[in-house]
Amino acid sequence: CLQSIHEIRHRPVGSKVEATATAWLPLDGPLSIGLTSGASTPDNLVGSAIARLSEFCNPLSLASCQERAREM
To answer: Which residues contact 24 (CB under 8 A, 6 or more apart)?
Structure first.
């Protein structure tokens, strides 16, 4: 769950327990985000995760992510 541009709640690969990570979004270079889901995960939930990411910044502009992080 994307709590904010600074915090994410997730289940690490191989773990059955959720973890909370801070400073999860690197703001100082190129960025790739992997999003996985099971076969039974509805497409709208995957779409919601992508939409939430786009709320933080323009996905095509690292500068917009850096600006948003400074504002928050």
So the answer is: 6, 7, 8
Q: Which region, left, alpha or beta, applies to residue 34 given φ > 0 means left and ψ of -120 to 50 means alpha?
A: beta
pLDDT reading at 20 higher than 60: yes
pTM: 0.59
Given a contact cutoff of 8 angstroms between Cβ atoms, the answer to whether 68 and 5 are in contact is yes
Number of helices followed by number of strands (H, E) in the chain: 2, 2
Strand partners, 1: none
Predicted confidence (pLDDT) at residue 58 exceeds the cutoff of 80: no
Whose structure tokens read 């919601």?
48
| Nearest-angstrom CA–CA distance, 45 and 43 | 5
Q: What is the mean pLDDT of residues 2-11?
A: 87
Quote the tokens at residue 50.
Answer: 């992508």
